[in-house]
Design goal:
about 300 residues
Length: about 300
């Protein structure tokens, strides 16, 4: 029979087995007791700052503050302006009942509170603006002085010793422009090329203007011509007088490359057809020559 003591006793035959609790020799944790699936199984040193500071996120966007004291406007920090925008009441009223008097007193207290808030607000805003301007001016002055100091400070000794050896005569002087002995000839060539391009553009513009002038003979510029053209196109007897249904029926199909080559080089056709092809080709050539000589479309 086992008794309830600090040590558990079990009777196994004639022998008594005693289970003595184990006590660690040190206070350090034993890794053996941590299972392998635990993240603490491997001892990894941690930084002193476990969690970095995260800037809190605030929902919404604050509007831009109004510029109360604008340059070139009325100075709102003077006593005259504050006295003008917060005038004291100059008249007294009589009331019929006590209730009306109580309401008027409450309104008077609210008006006084508004005047006080406006005065204090303007004064404190001006003081804050003065402090902010002074701080900005001091920071700007410091940055400019630091900039000037860094620009004019001498070269550091380590930079001078580690720089590659360059002859002083090879270093650029006050200007970084390299010598260009052929500059005049190159500029003259570029100028001539530019003038040639501009002349070609001007000639193209003149040709376009002349073509517009020649094609303006068929433009509709008057109300009578417009009415006549509308009556001609929207006539009820159009299909009876003009059986053509499209531009191809009216003016024919355009010439293909093969047809033009046949008209110009064919020798198997009769003389009349061959002569007519040459005549049309000659007319177009003569027209192009005349246009080149006259300097415009015909």
């Amino acid at each position: 029979m086992a008794t309830k003591t600090s040590c558990s006793w079990r009777v196994l035959g004639t022998f008594h087995v005693t289970h003595i609790p184990v006590r660690n020799a040190s206070t350090a944790s034993i890794t053996v007791r941590i299972p392998p699936e635990s993240p603490k199984f491997i001892d990894i040193p941690r930084a002193s700052q476990e969690h970095a500071y995260k800037k809190p996120y605030y929902k919404g966007v604050l509007p831009s503050p109004r510029r109360v004291f604008r340059p070139g406007k009325t100075d709102k920090s003077t006593a005259e302006y504050i006295a003008a925008v917060t005038p004291e009441p100059t008249t007294t009223k009589t009331y019929r009942s006590q209730k009306d008097k109580a309401l008027a007193d409450w309104r008077s207290r609210q008006a006084t509170l508004r005047r006080q808030n406006l005065r204090e607000g303007l004064t404190q805003l001006h003081q804050r603006k003065v402090r902010s301007d002074r701080r900005i001016a001091a920071r700007t002055e410091f940055n400019q002085a630091e900039h000037e100091r860094r620009i004019h400070e001498p070269e550091r000794e380590d930079e001078r010793l580690t720089n590659p050896s360059i002859i002083q005569a090879l270093k650029p002087g006050y200007t970084s422009n390299l010598p260009d002995p052929n500059r005049e000839a190159r500029v003259a060539k570029m100028k001539a090329r530019f003038e040639t391009k501009e002349a070609a553009k001007a000639e193209e513009r003149r040709n376009a203007l002349h073509s517009l002038y020649m094609n303006a003979r068929d433009f509709i510029v008057t109300e009578e011509a417009l009415n006549a053209k509308v009556d001609e196109v929207f006539d009820h007897e159009w299909f009876r007088n003009y059986p053509e249904h499209s531009i191809w029926d009216k003016e024919g199909f355009p010439d293909t490359v093969q047809s033009m080559l046949t008209q110009a080089n064919s020798s198997r056709r009769d003389n009349a057809q061959s002569t007519s092809g040459y005549i049309q080709l000659t007319k177009r050539r003569v027209q192009r020559i005349a246009e080149e000589l006259t300097g415009g479309k015909m």
